[in-house]
Structures are given as C-alpha cells and as structure tokens.
Amino acid sequence: MRIFAELEPDDFEQIIVINQNRSGLRALIAIHDTTRGPALGGTRLRAYPDDASALADCMRLARAMSYKAALADLKCGGGKAVIMDHAGLKRGEAFEAFGAFVESLGGRFQTGKDLGTTDEDIRAMARQTRYVACNADADYNAALGIREGIKACLAFLYGDDSLAGRRVAIQGLGAVGWTLARLLGEAGAQLMVADLDESKVERARAELGAEAVSPEQICSVECDVFSPCAVGGVINGRTIHQLKAKIIAGSANNVLAEEGLGWKLKELGIAYAPDYLINAGALIAGYNAFLLGKKESRAEVMRIYHRTLELLRMAAEQGLPTNLAADEIARSRLKKDKAHTDLFWPRSRKIWRS
Ligand code: NAD
Predict the structure, then answer these.
(1) Which partner for 351 in 21, 87, 133, 214 could form a disulfide, CB atoms 3.0-4.6 Å apart?
(2) Known catalytic residues?
C-alpha cells in the first residue's frame, strides 16, 4: 500500500493505526487539518470489507469535518476515527482501550458518537479519556441548520423565505429527517416523506399529516424542495434528470455522487445548498458545548441562513456551482502555517456528561 500517495492529494496531517490483540481493537484515526484548532470528529464502528475501504471512509469523513468547521468559522479542525467491527472484537474492552489511545493524543483529536456507536461505547471510552463527549441535542441542531438552509434557498430563488405552503420532499425519517419534518410542518410546509422503514412513514402520516412517497420516487416528486436526509450519493447521473425540485438541501453527507454534478445543477437552475454548510448544526453545538463550555448554540446554528444566502449569491456572481464555491472558501481557511503554541491544545476538563 502506498501510504503517502493516499495522504498527499488532500494534504492530510496524520493517520494513526491502532491495534490491540487482547481486545480485538483495530482502529484508524485520520487527522486532516488542525490549522484552526483540535481535530473534532466522531468514532464510527463498521464491518469494512478490507483495510483500504476503512481508511478511505475515515479519510473522506475527516476531510469533510475540516471543511465543515472552516465554513462554520469554528476554531477546530477535522478528524475521524473508525473501529473495525469483526467477530473477535470485545466491544467494552476495545472501546476502553481506544479511549486510552485518544487520551494519549492530548486533545489533538476529540471525538463522540457516529454511525454504529452507542452511548455505552462512549461511556467505555470516557473511562480512559477526557476527549470524548456525547451531545444530546445533536439531531435537533442538525435539523435546525437544515431548516435555515432551506429558508435561505427560498429567499435566494423567490425573495421570500416563508415555508408556508411550500412542498418539501424528505428522504429518510431518521434522527435528523424526523426532527426536520416536525420543524417544517410547524412552519406550514406540505410534507412528502419516504423511508425504507414503513413504520416511520406511517408515523409521519399520522402525526404530521405528511404524504407518503415510495423510496424509489422521492427524488422525482413534484415539489419545491428535495431534502436528502438518508444516505450520500443520492444525486447522481441518473437521478439528476428526474429531479423536479428547484432546491436541494438536506442533512446527508456527500449528496452529490461526483463534484462535477454541481455544474449540471447550476445549468438546470436548481439551488443546491452544500451539505457540509447546512448540516453543521450538530458540530456547531458540540464545539460550543465541549470546547467552549457554552450551553446555548441556537443563535449560531441560525447563522447557517446567512452563510447559505451569501454563498448562493457569491456563487451566482462568480458563475460557479455552489459546491465548488464552498470548497474554495473552506480550502482558503485551511492548511495555514501554525505557530508553535497552536500545536498544543489546552488540557480540557472531563467533558463527558451522562
Ligand atoms: P439515521 O440513521 O437516524 O436515519 C437515516 C434514515 O434514512 C433511516 O430512517 C433509514 O431507514 C432511512 N433510509 C436509509 N436509506 C434510505 C433510502 N434509500 N430511502 C429512504 N430512506 C432511507 O441517520 P441521521 O442521524 O438522521 O442522519 C441522516 C444523514 O444526515 C446521514 O447521512 C448523516 O451522516 C447525516 N448527518 C447527521 C447528523 C446528525 O447530527 N445526526 C449531522 C450531520 C449529518
């Protein structure tokens, strides 16, 4: 494997490979950039087909965290950890051992929950490190940011950001999608929803008056806004021709299967709110709580509205797709020289709150 060839294209700072036979722990930590502060990013547990896929996933997610933090103007950088799930993993022991490794980094990497990890896993880590936390309001703040992103797109296209009567198609009614549906419903939007889990769709029909749409059709329904809140890669070479929405704004990471699709969306006159710009609500709240000790983040999450509107206007002026304009801003805020003192993070308090 050519390790440095993997790191160079996106200028990764560090990859840490962790192994412990006793607990079956096999983990990777990718630290993409600490120009702005310590690298924040969740710890994911997943059964990967091989080491290379685990590394690729870890690096992709770490880079996205740097971009998200830079665009949200937070004094932190991007990192991510993945733990390989396999038959020999002794879960409690492995997470505790992983916590000890995280502690040894002295705050350079600080982590929390992600796909596949539970509160119990976080508690196991927290027995060994101060640099792990669990943010109870993550889903709400993520959904609030998405709502503001949608409103900014409406303001940009129609000069009126009211959600009343707007038709919004939501793909995925998980932690974020459900909360978003509730927030949009309260603001008077007409909801169309799809999920692989029919019980969630049924609940949205009963409690929110949403219209059920099949998972196959949610990308192509007649609506004002398409909000992907399930998986990445939803806008691809096939679905882009089926879209009827004028706005795409959701929580899923990597909504565009390829960067180049941004040009096509621009050509079609579709306003795309870049995923990592509008789904930063959870990171903003987590950063405030764990690094600054601030309990309240609403006002800062609400700033996603102005950031999105500014980005849409700037991209239009420059004739660029919004995803590429966002990447450019994020990159301009990363990879700066660091002063000696910037390399040492203050020792934080014990940050786990049960
Ligand atoms: P979740 O696992 O709670 O929910 C995902 C939902 O999508 C599930 O209900 C699942 O059944 C549904 N789903 C999966 N594939 C589908 C498909 N093809 N069609 C329709 N429904 C489908 O996840 P979440 O925490 O709500 O996060 C949703 C997305 O937002 C993820 O991509 C996540 O990475 C991203 N995100 C989440 C947060 C957060 O704070 N939770 C923050 C930023 C970004």
Answers:
(1) 133
(2) 80
